[in-house]
Amino acid sequence: MGPASPSGNGAIDALLLLTFGGPDGPDDVLPFLRNVTRGRGVPEARIAQVAEHYHRLGGRSPINDQSRELLAALRAELAPLPVYWGNRNWEPYLGAALAEMRADGVRRAAVFVPSVFATYSACRQYRENLAAGLAALPADGPGPELVKLRVFFDHPGFVEPMVERVAAGIERLPAAVRDEAHLLFVAHSVPRRQAVESGPDGGAYPAQLAAVSRAIVAAVAGPGGRERPWDVAYCSRSGPPTVPWLEPDVGDRIEQLAAAGARAVVIVPVGFVSDHMEVIQDLDRDALARAEKAGISAVRAGTVGAEPRFVRMVAELLAERGDPDRPRRSWAGLGPFPEVCPTDCCSAPTVEDRAPAAAGTPADARGRGRLLARAGAPAAGVGPPPA
Ligand SMILES: CC1=C(CCC(=O)O)c2cc3nc(cc4[nH]c(cc5[nH]c(cc1n2)c(C)c5CCC(=O)O)c(CCC(=O)O)c4C)C(CCC(=O)O)=C3C
Ligand SMILES: [Fe+2]
Questions:
Q1: Which ligand lies nearest to the CA atom of residue 18 in the structure?
Q2: Cβ neighbours of residue 353 under 8 Å, at least 6 residues apart?
Q3: Measuring CA to CA, which residue among 279, 270, 161 is closest to residue 210?
Q4: Rg, Å, the chain Cα set
C-alpha cells in the first residue's frame, strides 16, 4: 500500500512511467514521426531529415530500451508497488497501460514523466495524453485517478549525478586545456512562444534551465574555487522556419566560443535524461563535428540514465505526495515546482482552445476556453543569454 493522499482521496496504489517513445525498427520510423508531428506544422523536409537520422541508427531508437531499464530499476526500488509503463508516440502505448491499470483495479496512480523541465511538450502535453487516454477507456469502471509528480530539474537526485557527469566530462578533456573548460548547458529548443507560456507564470523553461546550470557550475568550480565560464544553448530546432524558436543553437554557440578564443568546451545535456536519438545525433554527431571543425576541444557529458539516486528520487517524490509535512528537496534555488499544475500551466502555444488535461487541476480537465495569452509578460530569460 502506498502513502495516504494529502487530499484524502485514498492511497496511491501504482506508478505509471510515461515516456516519449521511439521507433523499434525501420518500418516504424515514418509512422512514429507521423504520430509525433500530427497537427504540429512540422515541414516535410524536416520529417525526412529526422527519418534519415533514425535510419542511420538502423531505424531503431535507443529510447525504448532506456525506458525499459528505468522501468526495471523503478520496479526494484518501489516493490511491491506496481509500476506500469506507456509511451506517448509508440508501442507500448499509454492507452494500453491505462487499460491494464483499469483491469488490475488501480484506483489512484502517480505519473512520473522523465522530462527535466516544465514546458508544454514536456509537461502539459503528457497531461493531455493522459486525459485522452482516460477518455478512450471503456465505461466499465472508475479510474484510475491520476496525479503527476512534479518536474525534477531542481531535485538533488537529478542534480548530484549531473554534477558528477560534468566533472567526469572535464576530466576527459586534454590536460592542457582542462582548466579553461567552458560549460555549455543544452536543452531541447522549443518555439519561443511555448517558452514564454511555460510554467504557472510563464518563462519557466529557460528559468529552470538557467537555475540548474548555475547550481552545477557552482558545484564544479575550477582551480582555486573559480567558477568556470558557462552559458546555455539549445538543440533539435524543428517547426517552420518562420516560427521563432529558442536560440542559440548549440553548434552555432560552439563556433562563437571558438572564434572568441575558447579552447575547450563540455557540452552538458542537462535537458535530457538518457542518451537517446537527439543526444546521439544533435550532440555526439553534429555538435562535436562543429567543434572539431572550429578547432576547439569538446566532450559531451553523460546523462543521468537509470542511476540509483535518480531512481530513489522517484520514490521520494511519491512519498511527498502522501505527506504534506515532508520537506520538498530542491537544489537549484528556485524552490520546488508546484506539485499540482495550476490551471493553464504550460499552455499549448499552437492551439486556440485548451485540450482537456488530466492529473492537474479540475479546471484543466474541462479543457474549454481560450488559452491565456501571456506573450509580453515574463519574456525575460526567453531568448539568447546575455553575451
Ligand atoms: C522539450 C522537448 C523535449 C525534452 C523533454 C522530454 O524529454 O520529454 C523533447 C524530447 C524528445 N523529442 C524526441 C523526438 C522528437 N521530437 C520531435 C519534435 C519536437 N520536440 C519538441 C520538444 C521536445 N522534445 C518540439 C516542440 C517538437 C516539434 C513538434 C511539436 O511541437 O511537438 C520530433 C519530430 C521531428 C522533429 O521535428 O525534430 C521527434 C522525432 C525524443 C525521442 C528521441 C528518440 O527517439 O530517441 C525525445 C526524448
Ligand atoms: Fe522532441
A1: 1
A2: 367, 368, 369, 370, 371
A3: 270
A4: 21
Tell me the ipTM for this assembly. Answer: 0.97
Give the Å distance between the CA of 342 and the centre of ligand 1: 24
Which residues of the chain are in CATH 3.40.50.1400 domains?
14-152+307-366, 156-300
User: Tens digits of per-residue pLDDT, 322-352?
Assistant: 898 998 999 977 777 888 888 888 887 655 5
In 241-381, where do the E strands start and end? 264-268, 297-300
Q: How many CB atoms within 10 Å of residue 31? A: 11
Q: Would you say the CB of residue 115 lies under 6 angstroms from ligand 1?
A: yes
| pLDDT tens-place string over residues 109-141 | 999 999 999 999 999 999 999 999 999 999 888
Distance 36 CA to ligand 1 centre (A): 8
Cα–Cα distance measured from residue 257 to residue 180, given in angstroms and rounded to the nearest whole number: 12
Distance between CA 121 and CA 132 in Å, rounded? 16
The Cα–Cα gap between 141 and 185 comes to 46
pTM score of the predicted model: 0.93
Please answer whether residues 102 and 60 qualify as being in contact, where contact means their C-beta atoms are separated by less than 8 angstroms.
no
Residue whose grid cell is 554557440: 253
User: Domain 156-300 falls in which CATH fold?
Assistant: Rossmann fold (3.40.50)
Q: What is the CATH number of domain 14-152+307-366?
A: 3.40.50.1400
CB 322 within 8 A of CB 12: yes
Q: What nine digits make up the cell of 325?
A: 509535512
Cell 535518480 belongs to residue: 310
Q: Give the count of alpha carbons within 13 A of 28, CB side only.
A: 18
Cell representation of residue 349: 502555444
Amino acid at residue number 182: H
Indicate which ligand has the atom closest to the C-alpha of 275: 1
Residue 281 host element (H or E) = none
Q: Is 221 exposed, middle or buried (0-12, 13-18, 19+ CB in 10 A)?
A: exposed
